[in-house]
Specification:
mainly alpha, elongated, binds zinc ion
């Protein structure tokens, strides 16, 4: 009864769009874009809520990517 029907169920998903940045790059870009136009974030002693959130997104994304690569 071995019909070799264990085909992967990923037939519907295509390859990632060429030219689309990886999540880490996108998060970093968002943070830098904000950083460059935000005086609060450019001041080393301060950071606005939005900048904080973007920075967390970036470090969190980096964390996830690192874990993926190592495991
Ligand atoms: Zn800011």
């Amino acid at each position: 009864m071995d019909e070799g029907r264990d085909t992967p169920a990923a037939t519907g998903s295509g390859p990632p769009i060429a030219g689309d940045l990886p999540p880490l790059q996108r998060a970093y870009r968002r943070y830098v874009t904000h950083f460059l136009k935000c005086w609060d974030c450019r001041d080393l002693d301060r950071r606005c809520d939005e900048g904080e959130q973007l920075w967390r997104d970036y470090t969190h994304t980096g964390d996830a990517t690192g874990r993926q690569l190592s495991g």
